[in-house]
Amino acid sequence: MKIRATLAVGIAAAAALALTACTGGAGGAAGGGGGAIDTSGELSGTIKFQTWSLKNEKFSPYFTDLITAFEKEHPKVTVEWVDQPGDGYQDKILSQANSNTLPDVLNLPPDIGYPLVAAGKLVDLAEADPKLEAQYNKGGWEAYSSYTGIKGTYGLPWYIGSDESWWNLDQLKPYGVTKENLPTTTDAWLDLAKKVATDSQGKVMLVSSMPGLDTFISAGIPVIDDKGAFVFNTPEAVAIVQKYADAYKAGAMPAEALSGTYSGNAEMYLQGKVAYSTGGSGFAGDLRTKAPDLVDVTAASARPGVPPLFVQGLNVASTSKNKAAALAFAEFATNEKNQVAFTKLAIGFAPGTANGGDEVVKAVESDANVPAAQAEAMKIMFDALPKAKATPYQWTGAMTDYLNQQMALAVRGDIPAKDALDKIVKNANDNRIDK
After folding, report:
1. What is the pTM of this model?
2. The domain that contains 224 carries what CATH number?
3. Signal peptide: which range, if any (predicted)?
4. I need a labelling partner for 403 at 20 to 30 A (CA). Which of 6, 83, 300, 369 fits?
5. What is the Cα–Cα distance from 162 to 359, expressed in whole angstroms?
């Protein structure tokens, strides 16, 4: 089970427009609406529950028990569980929406949820049950509440995650870097990278990827305004890109990180090419299996600045003929007890609830099969989650590709940082999926 860091990389604008066109959702539709949904009475009927690539030996018993427990509480309700494979999930969701065959309860990250929200296909859960918000992680709740021009909340945070920083202290020790004085801001990290590269004559490198949208979010730079327009071509963002360029010039970044053959910063760390990487808490397991000699010299810390947030949620279809049972099941599946049980299995993830993280960490610490470094990284992640922020749902994989092209030119010094950012922001605004 991999962290879907880009959350399925976004929905293509054409697909979103096609859906809203056929469903009449254009023109600022505000989700499913419908007011409060009363789940306090006797529930009955059949609902369909759809997950995304979770039916396997590890998770199937959990979902079988979950459904059994819900049906025991509501003996007149039957829950039919359907799981869709990972590949082609976006297309499957759009097909279901267009044919009015959406399941009653479904698993959507915020970006895949957008065209359904715009087309009025999902229930506003904040309106359906006003008591819900306080029960969930703040950043996760906001991720389903920030659709441009649309009021409401259209998903319950289910399981969430973030990245940590991973440092090779053995390589950094000669330059005065210890676990106690690791940098905590983007600026401090880039300053350290340049210094270490200069002092080591390029032998120790601390920059293992180009700046991305998450870089600006981490630095506290606003990337999008309240109307959904991207706005990160600012002097503060220019300064960060220039710092990357300066670090690259000083030898702090492998040239391959700017090329099409780039294998990823985590892979370069495992190969010993760089002394810094980002990665989820599961990276400790990769160290143990792929680079055991690095386990004892590697330390994890919080990502500098604002940490990223990866969000998966459960949603209720507005087309459901049994909204009361569907909402009751979505709330049941995402309550603290059931989320804690799920994330004890999905090691490396956190419950999407406001609480429950301590219990998960204790369970991981007591598991002899989990590396101690992973348990420590999970503690760091849980501490960071209250302030973590998700990438705006409007940001797509195609935008990332264009950003990488321009950033490679800027970091190499081929074009000014300001020019690169202006082009990236213009491209993003020209291709927004919510326009």
Report:
1. 0.88
2. 3.40.190.10
3. 1-26
4. 300
5. 18
